[in-house]
């Protein structure tokens, strides 16, 4: 290979590297729909439930989670609305937990009591809206629906995880 063609090859490679570098504007700022799930449900002595809601930020940027209004249901038995205004910031591709206390409806209360008494898991759905503000931008409302199941926590009476 001649010295001149080798130098041209290096110059072309360097030029392409500069061109690619100029096209890059840093990391992609992607806003994805968040998710919510029940991390833990605790039946309190006063009959109300303490529900730990895990909010997951799947975006590549931080988001401030201003509020949520979610309906918790076990099969056809709606337990009620799980609502909060946490106003917490969750980093990119991270999650945090917010605890909400509410009084469940009778049919759902019986379904959960039956699952706890029998040591069985119970399927649930969590659906509604989460309001969040992506990294100092305009506030948005996201529709979420998530189904999963909770299992009795060994050694913790009245607790499902």
TrEMBL record:
Late embryogenesis abundant protein LEA-2 subgroup domain residues: 53-134
SUPFAM superfamilies per the UniProt record, alphabetical: LEA14-like (SSF117070)
Region (Disordered): 135-161
InterPro entries tied to this protein: LEA_2
The organism's place on the tree of life at top rank: Bacteria
Protein name: LEA type 2 family protein
């Amino acid at each position: 290979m001649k010295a001149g063609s080798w130098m041209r090859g290096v110059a072309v490679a360097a030029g392409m590297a500069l061109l690619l570098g100029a096209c890059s504007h840093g990391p992609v700022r992607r806003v994805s729909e968040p998710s919510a799930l029940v991390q833990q449900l605790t039946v309190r002595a006063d009959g109300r439930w303490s529900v730990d809601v895990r909010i997951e930020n799947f975006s590549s940027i931080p988001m401030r989670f201003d509020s949520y209004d979610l309906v918790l249901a076990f099969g056809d038995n709606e337990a009620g609305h799980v609502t909060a205004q946490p106003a917490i910031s969750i980093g990119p591709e991270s999650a945090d937990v917010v605890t909400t206390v509410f009084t469940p409806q009778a049919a759902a209360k019986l379904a959960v009591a039956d699952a706890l008494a029998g040591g069985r898991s119970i399927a649930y759905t969590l659906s509604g809206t989460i309001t969040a503000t992506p990294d100092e931008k305009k506030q948005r409302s996201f529709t979420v629906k998530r189904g999963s199941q909770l299992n009795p926590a060994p050694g913790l009476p009245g607790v499902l995880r």
